[in-house]
């Protein structure tokens, strides 16, 4: 099933006359950079989910907030859909453009406006890269904690829109836990501040509601993030296991010992071998699974915790436990994990990254289920897992040039997400729903819950012009997806057990 | 564990009836926070019938609790496993419920370092203004599917729906604690706190009561011991923080109305019209004052924060919460209209026109 916008099930979009819109934008905002020629639009036809592409009608590249405001007012008055985009690194197609819409690129807003060491915050424009905040705060001994793998490139505005995570979420939280204030423009171009520099604000917690709302409720124009003192030291333990179940149990044992690691990651054998081939991190390639456990904080505590965790891992049946001897080895251990996606990418022409979350105790059953589905669909799956917080990233290997493989990969991905929902998890932990998981939303939420989501949308964007078709499916789509879903279950390999 | 009763059917029935007759409901647990917010006129919906811990797996760091469960019971159950809710929510009365904790969204002295009640909410079940019992969020740490309705409920004072169940992230208690007292004036204390805030110290509470700076260190044995040596203060009795959290310090006995000023970190010492107590390392200041609302709010606004009056207002109809800018209020009303179209959930508790 194609996930590109389908007016039949996603709702009719307003008809926009490109030439007329371009003319009125130019008239109203002569200094606004607008792309309109096909060859200029093409670089913007997808975000990090590159399997799906739509050429936008126009791309706007504003440099001043008043331009964004004027653009929104004009689009609102003329009923033109607007899709916001930051750095375009999102993995769920949240910034996938619309043929009948304007793509509003916020990447040029890349200034850090203020770093307050005493106030422990940074006030930045939405196009500032995630890593740039920590780099700028580093001289003060401070940093911004959430670190999605794309942190070199991804922008903070996009992080807010997706409620981005990373490998340190269990201890330091998601984007939503690390924000103080977000300035937005509404669909009508009105400026509103959510949150404040204080730790709480009067009224409803709209800051929480907007975080992760995928550009559906407003456009982020400024972000104030919390800064934390940099941990004195960070140490990494690598443990090898001869079964994934044992590795999973070891994670629970670490938590049961009262230790919250800064990062706790698991990789299965296929992912280990791919990463080792690519990065030469020194991973044990025969292990069924490895755990990477990072302990950070004040030196004395980290030293104690390393000893404790080492004992727990050995008792849990680790075949090998290694403490990174120095910073270089620590960085190398992480490099293998942080490059797991591209590493797996070398095994196959294409891969499809899933993002389901599960209660950790369900890990063995879910991995078994994924293995069975992998056979059923005839596609290999490598597993990378934020083990501390139950966020799985199964990577489905496929070749888009082979007829039907992309569709098969999509179908397999959908089944994996439904498996996550069935054990009490979620279809997305940190990548967002976007366009990619729009159908699986119907598996996680019932019609009444989806109706309530539409109510929230209507409170902020009654005409539905902001990022139409993302995040929340129409009930019509769910009805249709439900029908298709049964059909899909009867497709290949009917003899295999299903989950 | 205490008594476990699923009375969600009964609560839903009461909401459906109220919807049919457009009769407002006054949602309450133990009423321990009834002094916060405007009085609500309506039929009482008592969440305490719906109580008990639904599931708790310490190694998953998640507990799911019915709204009417007493907070004390939850804290005991967590404590038996060496865990807790780090946000240290104030009870403000015997029998405080978990639902009330979430609806009021108040957090204790650990808040600046550990996070607020909202930060620990992972999922909720709600009875909505359309008469449905729905589930949002879940029991997993990371979940970005759909809008974050669960965290929106924290601090919404029951104005958007009836919280029937909540899943919370819990954490292991730290291995070591030290409570310290340093004789110094407020200005010096705030200067020290601004410095310490930039260092990886295991701070977990900091309060100045007008006489001395009180601090709490929590972490591993090593970090707490070394910070304690470095700061070189005298030891403080450990009951101080609970007394602060529950407003039982002598400061709170002052008969004048109590105000809570929420301010940016590193706000300079403020001259306030009354007696004050510095909490949250400076980001929260308690004030006992008879000064007019406008004056207290003006001071808080000028410092980049806001002020809430923790005492019932007279018949003025004035909200004890800081007024919202008109545009923000308009979107609050639109959200309320969508989620509670009949206006039956705690109408006016936050603001007269909400």
Helix content bin of chain A: 25-40%
The two chains with the largest interface, and their residue counts, are: A-B, 97 and 87 residues
CATH architecture of the largest domain in chain A: 2-Layer Sandwich
Total number of domains of chain B: 2
CATH class of the largest domain in chain A reads: Alpha Beta
Distance between the termini of chain A: 21 Å
Indicate the overall shape of chain A: globular
Please give the oligomerization state of what you see.
heterodimer
What separation lies between the terminal Cα atoms of chain B?
A: 38 Å
Q: How much β-strand is present in the residues of chain A?
A: 15-25%
Sequence of secondary-structure elements of chain B = HEEEEHEHHHEEHEEEHEEHEHEEEHEH
The largest sheet of chain A is:
7 strands, antiparallel
What structural class do helix, strand and pairing data of chain A support? alpha+beta
Stretches of chain A where pLDDT is under 50 for at least 5 consecutive residues are 484-499
- Give the beta-strand count of chain A: 18
Shape of chain B: globular
Low-confidence stretches of chain B: none
User: Taking Cα atoms only, what radius of gyration of chain B do you get, to the nearest Å?
Assistant: 21 Å
Q: Which class best fits the helix and strand makeup of chain B?
A: alpha+beta
Tell me what the structure shows.
The complex is a heterodimer of chains A (499) and B (354). Chain A has 499 residues and is an alpha+beta fold. Chain A folds into 4 domains: 7-105, Uridine Diphospho-n-acetylenolpyruvylglucosamine Reductase, domain 2, CATH 3.30.43.10; 115-229, Uridine Diphospho-n-acetylenolpyruvylglucosamine Reductase, domain 3, CATH 3.30.465.10; 233-276 and 289-337, Alpha-Beta Plaits (2-Layer Sandwich); 348-489, Alpha-Beta Plaits. Chain A contains 18 helices and 18 strands. Chain A has helices at 7-10, 18-28, 38-41, 65-78, 130-137, 156-162, 169-172, 206-210, 244-256, 269-279, 299-315, 327-338, 340-345, 363-377, 405-422, 441-444, 447-460, 475-489; strands spanning 34-35, 58-60, 82-85, 102-105, 112-116, 121-124, 142-143, 179-185, 191-195, 219-226, 228-229, 233-241, 263-268, 289-297, 320-323, 350-353, 381-386, 391-398. In chain A, the strands form 4 sheets. Chain A has a 7-stranded antiparallel sheet with strand order 15-12-14-13-17-18-16, sandwiched between helices. In chain A, helix 10 (269-279) crosses helix 12 and helix 14 packs antiparallel against helix 15 (405-422). Chain A is globular, with a radius of gyration of 23 Å. Chain B folds into 2 domains: 8-172, Uridine Diphospho-n-acetylenolpyruvylglucosamine Reductase, domain 3 (2-Layer Sandwich); 176-309. Chain B is built from 11 helices and 17 strands. In chain B, a hairpin with a 4-residue loop joins strand 15 and strand 16. Chain B is globular and about 65 Å long. Chain B has helices at residues 8-21, 71-80, 98-104, 111-114, 117-120, 149-153, 186-196, 221-231, 240-245, 293-302, 326-339, and strands at 25-28, 43-46, 53-57, 62-66, 83-84, 121-127, 133-137, 162-169, 171-172, 176-183, 203-208, 212-219, 234-235, 258-262, 275-279, 284-288, 306-309. In chain B, the strands form 5 sheets. In chain B, strands 3-4-8-6-7 form a 5-stranded antiparallel sheet. With 354 residues, chain B is of the alpha+beta class. The longest helix of chain B has 14 residues, at 8-21. Chains A and B meet through helix 8, helix 9, helix 11 and helix 17 of A and strand 7, helix 6, strand 9, helix 8 and helix 11 of B.
């Amino acid at each position: 099933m194609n996930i590109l916008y389908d007016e039949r099930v996603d709702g009719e979009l307003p008809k926009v006359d490109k030439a007329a819109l371009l003319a009125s934008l130019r008239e109203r905002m002569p200094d606004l950079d607008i792309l309109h020629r096909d060859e200029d639009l093409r670089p913007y036809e997808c975000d990090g989910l590159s399997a799906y592409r739509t050429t936008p009608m126009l791309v706007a590249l504003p440099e001043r907030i008043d331009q964004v405001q004027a653009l929104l007012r004009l689009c609102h008055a003329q009923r033109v859909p607007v899709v916001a985009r930051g750095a375009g690194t999102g993995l769920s197609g949240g910034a996938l453009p619309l043929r009948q819409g304007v793509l509003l690129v916020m990447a040029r807003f890349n200034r850090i406006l203020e770093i307050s060491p005493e106030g422990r915050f940074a006030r930045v424009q939405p196009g500032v890269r995630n890593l740039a905040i920590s780099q700028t705060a580093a001289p003060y001994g401070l940093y911004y904690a959430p670190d999605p793998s794309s942190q070199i490139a991804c922008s903070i505005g996009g992080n807010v829109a997706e409620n981005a995570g990373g490998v340190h979420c269990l201890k330091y939280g998601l984007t939503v836990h690390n924000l103080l204030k977000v300035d937005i423009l509404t669909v009508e171009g009105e400026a509103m501040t959510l949150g404040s520099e204080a730790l709480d604000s009067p009224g409803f917690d709209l800051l929480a509601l907007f975080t992760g709302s995928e550009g559906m409720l407003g456009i982020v124009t400024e972000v104030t993030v919390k800064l934390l003192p940099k941990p004195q030291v960070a140490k990494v333990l690598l443990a090898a296991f001869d079964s994934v179940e044992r590795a999973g149990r070891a994670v629970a044992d670490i938590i049961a010992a009262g230790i919250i690691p800064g990062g706790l990651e698991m990789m299965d054998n296929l992912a280990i071998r791919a990463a080792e081939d690519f990065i030469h991190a020194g991973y044990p390639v025969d292990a069924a699974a490895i755990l990477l456990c990072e302990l950070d904080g004040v030196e004395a505590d980290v030293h104690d915790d390393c000893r404790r965790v080492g004992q727990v891992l050995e008792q849990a049946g680790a075949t090998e436990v290694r403490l990174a001897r120095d910073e270089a080895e620590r960085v190398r251990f992480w490099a293998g994990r942080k490059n797991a996606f591209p590493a797996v990418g070398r095994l196959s022409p294409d891969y499809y990254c899933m993002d389901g979350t599960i209660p950790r105790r369900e890990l063995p059953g879910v991995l078994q289920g994924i293995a069975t589905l992998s056979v059923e669909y005839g596609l290999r799956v490598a597993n990378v897992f934020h083990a501390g917080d139950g966020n799985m990233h199964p990577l489905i290997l496929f070749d888009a040039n082979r007829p039907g493989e992309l569709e098969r990969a999509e179908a397999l991905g959908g089944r994996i997400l439904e498996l996550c929902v069935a054990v009490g998890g979620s279809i997305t932990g940190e990548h967002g729903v976007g366009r990619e998981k729009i159908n699986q939303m119907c598996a996680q939420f019932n019609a009444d819950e989806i109706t309530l989501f539409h109510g929230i949308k209507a409170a902020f964007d009654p005409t539905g012009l902001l990022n139409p078709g993302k995040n929340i499916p129409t009930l019509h789509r769910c009805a249709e997806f439900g029908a298709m879903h049964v059909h899909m279950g009867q497709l290949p390999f009917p003899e295999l057990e299903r989950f | 564990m205490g008594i476990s009763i699923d009375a969600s059917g009964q609560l839903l029935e009461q909401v459906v009836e109220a919807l049919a007759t457009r009769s407002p409901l006054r949602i309450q647990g133990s009423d321990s926070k009834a002094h916060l917010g405007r009085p609500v006129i309506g039929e009482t919906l008592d969440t305490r019938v719906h109580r008990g811990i639904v599931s708790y797996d310490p190694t998953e760091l998640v507990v799911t609790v019915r709204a009417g469960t007493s907070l004390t019971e939850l804290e005991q159950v967590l404590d038996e496993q060496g865990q807790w809710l780090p946000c240290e929510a104030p009870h403000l009365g015997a029998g405080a419920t978990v639902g009330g904790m979430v609806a009021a969204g108040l957090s204790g002295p650990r808040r600046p370092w550990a996070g607020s009640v909202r930060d620990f909410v992972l999922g909720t079940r709600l009875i909505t203004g359309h008469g449905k019992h729905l589930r949002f969020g879940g029991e997993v740490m990371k979940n970005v599917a759909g809008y974050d309705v669960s965290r929106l409920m924290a601090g919404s004072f029951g104005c958007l729906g009836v919280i029937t169940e909540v899943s919370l992230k819990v954490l292991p208690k730290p291995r070591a604690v030290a409570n310290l007292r340093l004789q110094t004036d407020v200005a010096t204390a705030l200067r020290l706190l601004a410095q310490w805030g930039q260092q990886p110290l295991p701070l977990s509470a900091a309060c100045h009561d007008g006489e001395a700076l009180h601090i709490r260190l929590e972490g591993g044995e090593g970090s707490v011991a070394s910070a304690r040596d470095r700061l070189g203060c005298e030891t403080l009795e450990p009951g101080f923080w609970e007394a602060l959290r529950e407003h039982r310090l002598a400061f709170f006995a002052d008969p004048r109305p109590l105000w809570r000023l929420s301010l940016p970190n590193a706000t300079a010492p403020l001259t306030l019209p009354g007696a004050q107590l510095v909490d949250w390392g400076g980001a929260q200041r308690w004030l006992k004052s008879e000064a007019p609302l406008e004056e207290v709010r003006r001071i808080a606004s000028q410092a980049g924060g806001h002020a809430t009056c923790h005492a019932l207002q007279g018949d003025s109809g004035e909200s004890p919460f800081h007024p919202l800018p008109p545009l923000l209020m308009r979107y609050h009303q639109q959200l309320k209209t969508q989620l509670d179209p009949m206006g039956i959930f705690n109408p006016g508790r936050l603001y007269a026109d909400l």
